[in-house]
Input
Amino acid sequence: MTINYWDTALRGLSIAIMMTLFVRQLWWRQFLIDGWEALNIRGEELVPMEGASLTFINAMRPWSLSTLRAGAYDIVPDGTRVHNSRIEIDRFNPRRATRVLVYNNGQISRRQIEIIDRDHLLVTPAAPGNHQHMLRRMKGLLMLTSR
Output
């Protein structure tokens, strides 16, 4: 009788933990889905990044909790450089994510994303020599994939 009680209690606890992690992942995924403006960090100021378009983050698949996709483009001297990316939310610390960008010329770039507050993401490129920048949520955008 005691074994059945503890067995049931442990199963219930396991299900509760799994559901909590599921809801937490879903919440962070929905948090990131939006339009974002790229900003350079200059001392204490945030300055719009020259030549950068808005970055739009949306869900790859409704059932994928930790994977998002993002798209944007940069205006460079040679024209427009399009980049698409995949964002993987850290399952153990959902305030962090890894973004892998693939540019239309085949270049690949990896970046770490950290959620600073409701409207700001800190982006740290993995390659040395590249500078940290911020993404600021664009308010008032009408997005079909947004909350």
Q: What stands out?
A: The chain has a mean pLDDT of 84. The radius of gyration is 19 Å.
